[in-house]
Amino acid sequence: MKVWEKTQFKSLPLFDRATESAFNEYHEKNPHVYELFKRFTFEKIRQGYKHLGAKAVMERIRWESPIKTDGSEFKVNNNHPAYYARLFMRDFPQHQGLFQLRKSKADEVVGV
To answer: Would 9 be classed as within a structural domain?
Structure first.
């Protein structure tokens, strides 16, 4: 099962439906973005970081990798870091709290 199939972002007050739909489409077409998100996050964990900003990880992807994405005019979309942070902490529960999250229904939906 693919990452985006394990997660259903339904009725998230933090995100509108257009953003949710855009993320799901982007993530499906560009799984390599999440792979880089995980890689850069684990690098910081190995360096001893206890807290990270998802936007900082996305900026690193933007500036330090030559990736190409499909289905977006942007290399990485500024609307997606919150989704990636939740996916990461759901997929790697031993790192709960690494990314500070605002309270939202996304926590219940993703299982963070």
So the answer is: no
The residue among 90, 84, 88 whose CA lies nearest residue 111 is 90
Prediction pTM value: 0.74
Locate 23 and state its tokens.
């993320």
Tens digit of each residue's pLDDT (9 = 90 or more) over 6-15? 554 443 444 5
Number of domains forming the structure of the chain = 1
Per-residue CA distances from 16 to 33, 41, 43, 62 (Å): 22, 26, 32, 24
Where do we find the tokens 């500024």?
78
Say if 82 falls within a structural domain.
Answer: yes
Residue 2 in domain: no
CA–CA separation, 11 and 16 (whole Å): 8
Q: How far apart are the first and last CA of the chain?
A: 19
User: In terms of residue numbers, what domain contains 72?
Assistant: 17-110
